Amino acid sequence: MPTPLQALNGVANACQILPNVITGxxxxxxxxxxxxxxxxxxxxxxxxxxxxxxxxEPALVRELGMEYVNVPVxxxxxxxxxxxxxxxxxxxxxxxxxxxxxxxxxxxxxALIPHLIIDYHMEEQDAVxxxxxxxxxxxxxxxxxxxYARRNQPRSDS
Length: 158
Hints:
- The structure is a single chain.
- With 158 residues, this protein is an alpha/beta fold.
- It has helices at residues 4-7, 29-37, 57-63, 80-91, 106-120, 124-133, 139-152, and strands spanning 15-18, 21-24, 40-45, 67-70, 97-101.
- It is 45% helix and 15% strand.
- The chain has a five-stranded mixed sheet, sandwiched between helices.
- α4 (80-91) packs across α5, α5 runs antiparallel to α6 (124-133) and α5 (106-120) packs parallel to α7 (139-152).
């Protein structure tokens, strides 16, 4: 049986950044079916519902028995509320494998930065390096993630 990452072979920028988090660009129907067969549990889609897709992703994901969550990341939505919705899904996945995707991985990278810094205690540069590995190319997306992480990182009392 393939791993969830292997199931997403061919997805742009597919990467297993954390044990239960796979990232990448837009999947097709066959890749979503393979993800489900490999144990995928949640599809967290950062694309706007109006963006063109190869398949009716919400319907197919639900038909396959996986959870589908859409948190659109677009101009005008780069705010704390959007990141908190994304982080809520990642934190609440309860051990299920999450496939976090957008069109290319760029928006995924920006949204992943605070998760890596706050929840995995990664240094900023390491988090940015990982975000770039999954497809981050936009300075605006990077700053969105870094700004949130800097303002919300727990303070140590040492």
